[in-house]
Amino acid sequence: MYEQISSNKRKSFFLILFFLVLIFALGWFFGQITDLGSYALIPAAIIAVLMTIGSYYGSDKIVLAVSRARPVSKEEYPYLYNVVEGLAIAAGLPKPRCYIINDTAPNAFASGRNPKNSVIVVTTGLLDKLNRAELEGVIAHEMSHIKNYDILVQTLAVVMVGVVVLLSDWILRSFFWGGGRRRSSDKQGGNAGSILIVVALVLAVLSPLFAQLLKLAVSRKREYLADANGALLTRYPPGLASALKKLSADKEPLEVANKATAHLYIVNPLKDIKGKMNALFSTHPPIEKRIELLENM
């Protein structure tokens, strides 16, 4: 468990680092072809900060509204409350607020900008189809997302994708504004200037794809980390492994889920993605691999 946690933390760190390198590379190329230099990074930084603040404070409310989740009381679902309270104590966290989605498809997710403002959302199907050990495994997984500030990491990843797309668009538009022509006619232009323009153009076209793949890779690594942390929290990996088997065997789609919220759930609520190439565009790692890792702990 500890080895899996350390490995996932390292991989997540390097993925975020590569994200930042990509953003600065785009900013540098934009500055070079438009003669703005390092000043090109200033508007990108301002937009990134504003997007981060908006996502940080409003993302949980938006997700709950889109998912049609409603708050529930302890009197209505004492079974759920007891599990959440016990695992919150074990994790050393404030008890998250509990929400329910009225849907027979079993699934769950966590949201909130920090542990004090966190929520755990489960479907009625999850409560009906899992036993206590399996439910504890799922709730421990979601509690780990809260403890690891995964929602914040995902928010940063979404914002960085937005910044990459924005910078790429600026670079492409700069060619229409004449930025590329100015650079090639510069006294330092020539072959070097032409190469710079070609590299900038290729990077502008491919960067949004790379950024999207990086965001999905970050999402998959956080799922592995939450699995390992959840198993550490319950000290019973078979509970979560058994829950994942049931969830993967249940082919009923979650009606309220969409591509914007799919990455939040413990398993992909949309149609399963098959094949190695298509798996690159999946928000979740292969569930068979997750079960294998848990069973080997």
Notes on the structure:
This protein is 67% helix and 5% strand. The model has no long low-confidence stretch (mean pLDDT 80). By secondary structure, the protein is mainly alpha-helical. The radius of gyration is 22 Å and the shape is elongated.
Helix-strand blueprint:
Layout: H1 2-34, H2 41-66, E1 70-71, H3 78-91, E2 97-101, E3 108-111, E4 119-123, H4 124-129, H5 132-147, H6 150-177, H7 179-184, H8 190-234, H9 237-249, H10 276-279, H11 287-295
Parallel strand pairs: 2-4
Antiparallel strand pairs: 1-2, 3-4
Helix pairs in contact: 1-6, 1-8, 2-6, 3-5, 5-8, 5-9, 6-8, 8-9, 9-11
Tell how many strands the DSSP assignment holds.
4
Q: Which fold does the CATH topology of the largest domain refer to?
A: Zincin-like
Number of domains: 2
Computed CA radius of gyration, to the nearest angstrom: 22 Å
User: How many strands, which pairing sense, and closed or not: the largest β-sheet?
Assistant: 4 strands, mixed
Strand content: 5-15%
Sequence stretches where pLDDT stays below 50 over 5 or more residues: none
Enumerate the strands of the largest sheet in spatial order, edge to edge or round the barrel.
1-2-4-3
Q: Which CATH class of the largest domain is shown?
A: Alpha Beta
Element pattern in H and E: HHEHEEEHHHHHHHH
Overall, the morphology is elongated
What is the H level of CATH, i.e. the homologous superfamily of the largest domain? Metalloproteases ("zincins"), catalytic domain
